[in-house]
Amino acid sequence: MVVCSITIILLSILLAGCTSSNGLSNVYLVSLQYRNASTSVSDDPVLVNPGIAEKVYNISHGNSTIREVRAGYMGLCLTLSNGAQLCSGSAAALASMVKAEGIQSNDTGAADPLNLIWIAKNFKEKIVFDGLIFIAVVLTFLCFILLSTFPGWHEEIDENGSEREVKPFPSRPVSQAALGLSALGFMFGLVSILWQHVNSSAAGTMAESLTYGAIEGHVGTAAMILGWAAVVCLGIISLALLIMILSIRMLAMLTEDD
């Protein structure tokens, strides 16, 4: 039950990443930020128009209002050039704030020259999918409820009249149902976190390539740790229930043989 609770907490924090600037801004899937140093493109013969890299660099290195954009499952976070952070579940609201800053400086386009907010919004809405994580949370919660019905320790009087503490075996159907729920939760969680990891890495790499290095892409370490830790916890729950069911079955067979 404790491991189930930990799993639900980990997945809940992961889903809530980038919805608030109070600590949750560090829980993000991918971050895109303008590179400070000058970029150089190698003399690759595949580059038909190598001059475009310099043009992209010149566009991106103005006095931009934002420095970094972080994308989570349910929100985006901006790091402004003055170090302040803004987080919201609405990309339109963040874009309006950035445009307002650009109007004050008489250059709306320079506020976000390469449209990092738009790129992060598309990543959040079109690439990542949080439905499987919600399913895993629900399945884990149902497993938690079933585990809470398992009998605990209680005192009984034996044939000699002395008291002893005993713990009955849990119901076989309930145990099997809990195992099924935990196994399904593990599979949904594994697919979702693996999908999250691959997509975040690919999105960061593609953003760097398509902007010729003018943008740096980073995968969120905290989000990956939370996700994979939750998957490990779900695996532990499933394995523990499987071992318990097999052990009870083996004991029952030995008892019948005697």
From TrEMBL:
UniProt keyword Membrane, yes or no: yes
Bilayer-spanning residue ranges: 132-153, 174-198, 218-246
Annotated GO CC locations: mating projection tip; membrane
GO biological-process terms attached to the record: conjugation with cellular fusion
Span of the signal peptide: 1-20
Keyword Membrane annotated: yes
Keywords: Membrane, Signal, Transmembrane, Transmembrane helix
Pfam family, one: Fig1
InterPro entries: Dni1/Fig1
Top-level taxonomic group: Eukaryota
PANTHER family given in the database record: FACTOR-INDUCED GENE 1 PROTEIN
Protein name: Ca2+ regulator and membrane fusion protein Fig1-domain-containing protein
Species the sequence originates in: Aspergillus felis
